[in-house]
Amino acid sequence: MQNNKLFIYQLLPRLFGNSFSENKHNGSIEENGCGKFNDITDKVLRQIGENGYTHVWYIGVLAHASVTDYTAFGIPEEYPGIIKGKAGSPYAVRDYYDVDPDLAVDIHNRMDEFENLIKRTHKAGLKVIIDNVPNHVARNYRSVSKPDNVRDFGQDDNTSIAFSSKNNFYYIPGQLLEIQLSHVKKAECEYLEYPAKATGNDCFNSKPTHYDWYDTVKLNYGIDYPGGGTSHFNPVPDTWIKMRDIFMFWAKKKVDGFRCDMAEMVPLEFWQWLIPQVKAKFKEIIFLAEIYNPSAYRGFLGNNIFDYLYDKVGLYDVLRDVACGYRPSSDITFALNNVGDIQHKMLNFMENHDEQRIASDYFLKKGEKGKAAMIVTCTINTNPVMIHAGQEFGERGMDEEGFSGKNGRTTIFDYWSVDTIRRWNNNGKWNDEQLCKEEKELRDFYTGLIRICNKETALSEGLFYDLMPYNYDNLKFDSTRLFAFLRGDGKDLLLIATNFDNEPKECTVNIPPHALSFFGIDNTGNGKITPLLNKASEVITFSSVFSLKMRLENNSGEIYRISFD
Questions:
Q1: Confidence class of residue 527 from pLDDT cuts 50, 70 and 90?
Q2: Can you list the positions of beta strands (E) in 331-466?
Q3: Which residues share a beta bridge with 197?
Q4: Which of 42, 213, 426, 445 could form a disulfide with 201 if both were Cys (CB 3.0 to 4.6 A apart)?
Q5: Closest CA to 215 of 188, 241, 255
Q6: pLDDT-derived band of residue 2, with 50, 70 and 90 as boundaries?
Q7: CA 491 – CA 521 distance, rounded (Å)
Q8: Per CATH, the architecture of 462-564 is what?
Q9: 7-454 domain in CATH 2.40.50.840?
Q10: Is 344 left (phi over 0), alpha (psi -120 to 50) or beta?
């Protein structure tokens, strides 16, 4: 049964399709290889769809600065001293109207190859999300693929003044850019920027350091930061118009959604102006905001603006700490209460390209120890859920790739291949031949969990009832390591119980009478709870639904269907 709960599979094509196993530290594209759009075949897309996902978020699609030389194809020369890693950051876009040549087999026809990937994705019953990076561009931004009637960013700027609403960039007049990077050789610093432009992370001086987003420059949306932060939105700033045209360009290519990078660094007024215009022409398109400031959430979710927001500083941070044993599981309740009525608009995840892998030495060390957190993440509400490619196999992210060191994250800056994904890829066979037993079992857990969420309308559309407050005084329920709640839609009632402890737990979950009346249930006599997630688990009979005994495996949990005789 198809429902409205989104499951997003996030992948970086550069890594996802790469079968090279050399993985030389700081290697070039020739040495380490690079995945292509064409590597994401019908077969693997069909698998992703069959595993329950609804969307694929392709990151790194837009052409971004790298040290690889594509001047023979009419692409401007790049400067290693202002690029992070050999492959560069996908978030240092050098041409908004182009796709990255690294990802094409035939570089001249790279856009056709991406458009064919969109078609293959749709054929598999999946929708396409790509990044838009509205706050900043690559230091050496210059579009060679823009439509003939489009003026480039900065092309008409008055560079003699720090700010003008007509300018696309902010300037530091009379000063030369001097990036403070001790590891960069002088020969690599041939890039000349005069006057210096403000750096992407709101660094308004000419000497950004390695702590700054030194590979990017800040776009000007009409806020005079150098002059005290006053707004100049009338007439509509030139950057607004240019960025609207970019969104429309990609929407016309049948992209189904945009994940907007660091959306809160762009004025809310711009989003209020832009998004209704895009949705008026492309009614089904979705907008997802990367945002970390809870006080801004409701503004960004205002009428006809963003559809979903990151829930990083809320549920993710709490679930991570609970899974690691740093805080009690009862804190999950407070994280949910903090977003309250907009919880269904929050994008839940336990991994993405910015965060450390669950199986890394910096997190839980083993992917299977994240099961409890993933059960909560997927079933807590009707909101979307994101999985980072390789997470389902327990990818550890413990490589030291080059620019990206051994930090528990999978690089976005280097040419590399990811161990678990490369073995799943198996030279384009996309099968289990090279996966170990534990990896296949973890993948099957993720698939089973997502499919249950797809099938059960109580999870995809139903209401939520937190059982934690009613069990704080329950001596047979450890509210520091267990978390339990109900989901129901008027037809089915599900109990979700999870155990964040490293040991199995025998427990009793108390259900208050109010919970049943909340879901419109009158029958409270004999019945049974049937496990949906672990089919081998025991069906438990009860004589009173108000007190349910069960055993929960360590670092895991169960989804039970409650039924009455």
A1: very high
A2: 346-349, 385-388, 463-466
A3: 171
A4: 213
A5: 188
A6: very low
A7: 9
A8: Sandwich (2.60)
A9: no
A10: alpha
